[in-house]
Amino acid sequence: MVNQTTNPSAQKIADHLAEFWLEIGKTAGILDRNNGYNAVFAKGYSWPSKIFDLQPSALALELLKSGIEIEQLPNAILAQSEATKVLLESSGFERVSSLKAMALDVSEGHLQVLDEHQFETVTTKGQAGKFARIAAGSFDYPVKSKTVEALLNNPKFHMFLGKHEGALGSCGMLYLDNNGVCGFHMIGTLPTFRGKGLGKSMTQYLLNKTVELGYGTVYLVASKSGEPIYSKLGFATFGEVETFALTNTSR
Asked: What structural domains does the chain harbor?
């Protein structure tokens, strides 16, 4: 079993998120590697369009701004370090989201018995399409089937669907990073299925799978409303992961 520190910094969790996007970008063919930053930019500004891995010392800031203005780059930048945050705040960018950086040590278990019939492992294009539809409906932003389909044959990604009374209503994803950490991503529930415990049961199902795979540490990022749910399952908060956008733009 992989043992990792259970006291990560928010930067480590943000770096995991950046690696997650980098792997999606490479796998789905939507990665833009440039001098001073990386970006993934899915068609129609769909998931996971982001700029990340900013290197302030190598960054041509005006070219970055221009790329955002002419819609060749997404207007969403992950601040992975204090230096990046300071640069963005002093250059016309403002914080547009702040998510809780959370982690859990599962090396001693956290298993619960669940009804396996209430979950499906995503292995086909048809299931990938259902995952994309549920994710888009859950998060209220576009998620393309093609992007999800591209991840099917990458062993770093494990995707699941959850059911309620036989109908699919939730989704969740594991990402196995290069540092021996399992990340939880895209945990969502369709609005008509909320209040039925699907989000909690999907999270527990992902915990079960993490233990089965032999991983000892889990990272995730959560909204303020999601933090209490994850806290009840044992996750602790280690700071915030912030996203910045360029202001005074038509986008």
From this structure: 10-101+240-246 (no CATH), 104-238 (3.40.630.30)
